Structure formats: structure tokens, C-alpha cells
């Protein structure tokens, strides 16, 4: 099916309620729309996930008894809770700020300066809101 770029004046698909041109337009990915009005992104995978892909495919085959096909969702291949737990342990061990870890656990996202432009505005805002929430509850531990 043919896909064309989403109009900059359309409502942004990420869900902020803003216009595409003043939201996710110009980031490192594009929103495309097909003839039926279905919207998709042209960057299907997060770069970090792409790195893990061979492992995910192996686990998928083990869990489902067949190789992963194009219609399968990536997260059907992994135990998301298990991955989250391992990530949190690794972050604690390396001294990552607790507010950041909290935001990761809450949103399932990992916001960095490197991938910020690949994330939808709504996801970025959700992550930052979670960090603020943690700081509001626990105070800013960094100040003496
Ligand atoms: Zn957006």
C-alpha cells in the first residue's frame, strides 16, 4: 500500500493534541499515512532495540516454537518485566540518578540526548513528567 507524508497541519499522531508541525515534525523520524488513513512511523525500531534484535528473535522462536515473522510484534518475543528488572539493577549499580530510574520504570522509556529526536513529543514529556514527579516526592537529593 502506498504511503505519503502526513500533512504538517494535521493533528500530531503522538497524542499531544498539537499540530504535527509544532510537535514531532522535523525530528529524526516521519509520520506516514496510507490510503486508508492509517498512520505509521518510518523508523520502526528504537536503535537500542535493533541491537537486541537477534536475541529477541531467538527468544521468540523458543517461546512460540516458530521463527518471528513480519506480522509479529517485537515485545511478544521478550519478557518485558525481566528486561526492565535487569536494566534497573544495572542502572542502580552504575549510580544512575534515582529519578531517572523511576521514570524508566514508570514509562518503559529511556530518554537520552542521543535518542531524544527519535522519540515522540508525548513520550519525551511523559518521561520528564515522571522525573519531576520523583523529585517532587523525594526532594532533590543532590543539594547538600
Ligand atoms: Zn507529536
Q: Which secondary structure elements does this structure contain, and how are they paired or packed?
A:
Blueprint: E1 3-5, E2 31-34, E3 39-41, H1 47-64, H2 80-93, H3 98-107, H4 121-138
Antiparallel strand pairs: 1-2, 2-3
Helix pairs in contact: 2-3, 3-4
The chain binds zinc ion.
Zinc ion binds next to α4.
Describe what you observe in this structure.
- With 144 residues, this protein is mainly alpha-helical.
- The chain folds into three domains: 1-43, no CATH class; 45-78, no CATH class; 80-144, no CATH class.
- It is 42% helix and 7% strand.
- The protein has four helices and three strands, in the order βββαααα.
- It has helices at 47-64, 80-93, 98-107, 121-138; strands at 3-5, 31-34, 39-41.
- Strands 1-2-3 form a three-stranded antiparallel beta sheet, with no helix packed on it.
- A hairpin with a 4-residue loop joins strand 2 (31-34) and strand 3 (39-41).
- The longest helix has 18 residues, at 47-64.
- It is flat.
- The termini are far apart.
- The relative contact order is 0.12.
- Bound molecules: zinc ion (ZN).
Number of structural units classed as domains: 3
Largest sheet: 3 strands, antiparallel
Mean pLDDT: 83
List the bound ligands. zinc ion
**Quick one: how many beta strands?**
3
Q: Give the percentage of residues in beta strands.
A: 5-15%
User: What spatial order of strands do you see in the largest sheet?
Assistant: 1-2-3
Total of helices = 4
Structural class: mainly alpha
Report how far the terminal alpha carbons are from each other. 59 Å
Quaternary assembly = single chain
What's the helical proportion of residues?
40-55%
Which segments are poorly predicted (pLDDT under 50) over 5 or more consecutive residues? none
Overall geometry comes to: flat
Amino acid at each position: 500500500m502506498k504511503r505519503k507524508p502526513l500533512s504538517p497541519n494535521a493533528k500530531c499522531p503522538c497524542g499531544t493534541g498539537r499540530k504535527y508541525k509544532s510537535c514531532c515534525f522535523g525530528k529524526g523520524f516521519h509520520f506516514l499515512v496510507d490510503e486508508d488513513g492509517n498512520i505509521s512511523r518510518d523508523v520502526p525500531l528504537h536503535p537500542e532495540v535493533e541491537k537486541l534484535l537477534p536475541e529477541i528473535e531467538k527468544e521468540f522462536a523458543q517461546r512460540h516454537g516458530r521463527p518471528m515473522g513480519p506480522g509479529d510484534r517485537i515485545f511478544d518475543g521478550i519478557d518485558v518485566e525481566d528486561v526492565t528488572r535487569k536494566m534497573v539493577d544495572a542502572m542502580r549499580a552504575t549510580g544512575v540518578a534515582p529519578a531517572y530510574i523511576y521514570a524508566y520504570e514508570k514509562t518503559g522509556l529511556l530518554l537520552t540526548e542521543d535518542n531524544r529526536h527519535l522519540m515522540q513529543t508525548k513520550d519525551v514529556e511523559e518521561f520528564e513528567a515522571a522525573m519531576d514527579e520523583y523529585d517532587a516526592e523525594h526532594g532533590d537529593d543532590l543539594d547538600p
